[in-house]
Amino acid sequence: MLDIHITEFYNDMGRILASLYRHFPRQISLYVEDISGPDTPDEYGLHSERHLACFSTFLWLAEEGLIRYGDVERQVAFNHCVLTLDAFRLLSGFDPDGGPKLIDELRLAIQEGSSDMTEDTLRRLLAAHAT
Bridge partners of 31? Predict the structure, then answer.
């Protein structure tokens, strides 16, 4: 059984971190739709499951200490959003074996549209963050 929601989680996380790295150290407003794609609210104006999953990825990254934000705009945008020092160090640190920086691997994975490569890169980032 494929856990597509986990693949989407890693893809969202990769796009969020890469976007924030590109603007570091500036605080920016980052819109959920810019990460997950267009939202299609239902007839009651409730966000789609895909949108809410991406929104939850932002919250999870903040709870885990990888990003900070000032406030949330109606489940649409995270304002004053920035990488934490720990996330910045993990993304810009060099591989002790002489490999590329994690941010370079992440950018390449996103550019190539490789979910497997994105997931592998972020698993290593999370393992390093846990220590």
Answer: 77
